[in-house]
Amino acid sequence: MATFLYRLARFSYRRRRLVALLWVGLLVLFGVGAATLSGPTTSDFSMPGTESQRTIDILKKRMPQVSADAATARVVFAAPEGGTLTGGANRAAVQQVIAKLKTAPQVANVVDPYQAKAVSPDGKIAYAQVTYRVTAIDVTEEARDALIKAAEPGRAAGLTVEMGGPATEGMPEQSATEVIGLIVAAVVLVITFGSLIAAGLPLLNAILGVGIAMAGITAATGLVDMSSTTPTLALMLGLAVAIDYALFIVSRYRHELREGRDGEEAAGRAVGTAGSAVVFAGLTVIIALVGLAVVNIPILTEMGIAAGFAVAVAVLIALSLLPALLGFAGNRVLGGRIPGLRGGDGAKAPMGERWARFIVRRPLPVLLLAIVGMGVVAAPALDLRLGLPGDEIKPSHTTQRKAYDLLSKGFGPGFNGPLMVVVDGRNAQAAAQRFAGRIRGLGDVAAVTPPTANPAGDTAVLTVVPKSGPSDKATEDLVARIRDLPSIGGADALVTGSTAMAIDVSAKLSDALLPYLAVVVGLAFILLMLVFRSIVVPLKATLGFLLSVAATFGAVVAVFQWGWLADLLGVDQTGPIISIMPIFLIGVVFGLAMDYQVFLVTRMREEFVHGAAPKEAVVIGFRHGARVVTAAAIIMIAVFAGFITAEESMIKMMGFALAAGVAFDAFVVRMMIVPAVMALLGRAAWWLPSWLDRILPDVDVEGEKLRLLLGDGTADAPDRREPQPAGRG
Question: Which of these, 461, 500, 466, 502, lies nearest to 483 by C-alpha position?
Fold first, then answer.
């Protein structure tokens, strides 16, 4: 591989104008596709194989008029101080709003609060249910604007009018968070290299790569239904890894230039060595992301594939466009010095070397300190509670959150998450009447509506309003108790609705976690065995990752569930952790953790294979890699942390979790635990059974074949066919 990448880089360096033109042309092509093919995104969840989804499918077939998957909005009215909504001008104002809602585009039905008795006992709060003819993804901006404008007569009359529900969710606006990340990345790169030109190359490389990836994802929204959070998360990851991959290659390029080689040769060697690590680091990230398809929840599959595509583009552009950009820059990447900044390519990092020598002298105390510290941070994860919170975690100034609070005040929190119970079987109407009586006796039930049956009499629907909120544990228990009710005359009670869907998502994710870990960790373990020619090193990398994830879960629970530092981070409402977050976090952090593992330890292996003693190889590899790994981690943390300012709660939580995960993994696991374990293991770290050594293909990540091809292999290098170091056969 190193030889192939060496030749690719030299070609890109020589034919830099052609290569740059091809990539710019690709950007234009994808941009045209994004402009002409893009479609709307959605906040909906679909869950094949769950009871909620099966129940919706039954209703679509037998009672399409129920529109179980249709978009809905709930318009909530509150009387001015000292007044009520039950008569006079206030009631007339409510009726004006209802009349406008009925004529709004795409609206199928509006339930009058006075006819449906949807007025609070004190007469101060009422709500109207609006049902659309289309799903939430198909609600147009025109229809959404009409919904908002319908509230004007009520507000003009002095009423408070707020609205929530899926139909009110527009496409989230892109914020300046990615710009913040780029600014921080630029500062870190300038400090790292001490040169504006060298710092600018990774940024230019990342901007072009992310532009292509995001244009491709945007174009894809016109072909498939896609979550509204998918582009943002792909942007978050694509930007971070694109800068990091370019950082490692530029750093190695500067090192080769300082060794006296010309630009083309330096680019070839940089991509042949650091580029090999980039390929395998990128592959581990892609495996972890695409592996999310194992869960079989469409939104997670979309996120994984889109983010994996962004990472793949980052790898390809680092291997081909970056050498071309280096050709344009030439030796100037060593120039443009900024006074007061020493910069460096990682070859001269005395602080990193001193730290490594400190650890190899005292590996056991350092290892114990790091593990105990991470264990303390991970402790809150024992209280992890999952769910799919809705409008209750929206920022307090949004109309969705205000509508939720008003409805909770007037009717109780359960009215924000009613359960739809579907009775499936013969004589459904009679069975539903009996089920309604049993459900009223289950506890935590505020109301049960009379059932409605279809003409065939094999399906009936009734609504159950819990006393507890949609994301409360009591509501989850109520759903389980309803589902556990025995059949009546051959008819069964099935539960669906947004609250039941959220519960099913959490259960499905929990069931899929172990298979997902087995697939992702198994494939990545094999990949890392190819890279490191070792069994112990991949095992250590995996265990370190699990420690990072546990600490990250602990931090997320402390902030978003317990409320620690909530005000500082702008968390308006604490509650359950979004159920898709843990499995997605595991996938992403695993990929990123392997990035640092590959970048740091491949250099250690390179030095060991070329003759260094085990502990000295750790020190030398750390000296070469510590500076750029530190810079890469800070850049990733900055990019992810920028998304903490987003209003979308899922994006805020993801940004915090990823930033924390990178911090724990880079600065504790890779900078403390890895060198300590490598020092303790010595030569045993590189042990590989001879039979396995013969089976595994030789991918030559450390570039030994390249060194021999170029005529600078060392005669005194150890015989790599021996079991120690792990042979190559």
Answer: 500
